[in-house]
Amino acid sequence: MDLVGGYILALDMTARDWQDKAKSQGKPWSLAKGFDTSCPISSFIPKEKIPNPAEIDLWLNVNGAKKQEGTTKDMIFSIPYLISYISNVMTLEAGDVILTGTPQGVGPVVNGDVIECGISKIINMKFNVESE
Description:
- This protein is α+β, with helices and mostly antiparallel strands.
- 15% of the residues lie in helices and 22% in strands.
- It has a single domain, classed as Fumarylacetoacetase-like, C-terminal domain (Fumarylacetoacetate hydrolase, domain 2, Alpha-Beta Complex), CATH 3.90.850.
- A 4-stranded antiparallel β-sheet has the order 4-3-5-6, with no helix packed on it. The protein has a two-stranded antiparallel sheet with strand order 1-2.
- The radius of gyration is 16 Å and the shape is globular.
- This is Oxaloacetate tautomerase FAHD1, mitochondrial.
- Pfam families: FAA_hydrolase.
- Keywords: Metal-binding.
């Protein structure tokens, strides 16, 4: 963990309609994960602000209603294990970001929805869902 520079809050969105279409056609569905604005991230959080990343609370509201709430205590793999595993497959460099998953409660959002999410009382993000 000495090499961890800090943390961010990220919201890894998926366009399920694009994903379903690509899957049904036997095509890669990476576009469903990599569209414009698909992964908003917070500002950088120095690791000193999160002394124990294995015990932080995460939450997400849509239009003020709680949709996701969880804790990193529920992670299947620890952060040190994930870093070790990933670094055996690819080179990790300063500034790289590792996203680790999401609490239960994944669901659809539509144009006009307001999403707010956060890490404990450390940081939060708020934005509007807009579609073309």
